[in-house]
Structure prediction request, 200 residues.
Amino acid sequence: MVSEIIKIITAFILVIRNFIFLIFSPYKTIRKISIKSDYYQIGIIFFLVFIYFKFIYYLRADPHPATFVFLIFLINFLLTTGFFYLVSKNSEKVNFRSFVFTFSYSLFPTLIWFLTNSILYILFPPPRFPSLLGKGFSIFFITFSISLLVWKLILFYLSLRFSTKLNFFRIIYLIILYLMWFVPLSIFFYYFKIFRIPFI
Prediction:
């Protein structure tokens, strides 16, 4: 019991450290994560995602329970990692664990954006009027969102780069194949009000 608690605390510290390093040195950090990590760290990241779904459920009274949405997220995550693993399994160097670890850490920009959006929903609830302050807020939020999107794309590409061991053009090809089924799936989630914006 004590050893498990120590492992969880250690993993929590490593998650915080890796999160900081992903901001300032994403290339080296993702490469290190793809080689060496553990499932305690992944469990902590997924726990944070689950806490967010609980938070948003009580905040906006979503029609679907948080546990259900979290399970859909897990299925979507496994479909994504499984897809890229299967289509890039061209040698023994490709390891499914690497996809799970790197893709889990690449969730941080997504989690930060969704959490920030929810907090701003509380602080500045709609409708937001087209005043000078409102326009300034819009510019700030758009800039913030674009920054997180760029960070997300960098982490997503590096996750594929170090997990698949493929070159740039092969990775772009795999992403196009991925979008061919992911976009219709996202529309399906939107139609049933599970995810208004894909949580990836």
Remarks:
- The two ends are 33 Å apart (CA to CA).
- The longest helix spans residues 132-164.
- Helices lie at 2-24, 26-35, 39-60, 66-87, 96-105, 108-123, 132-164, 168-191.
- Residues 2-191 form one domain.
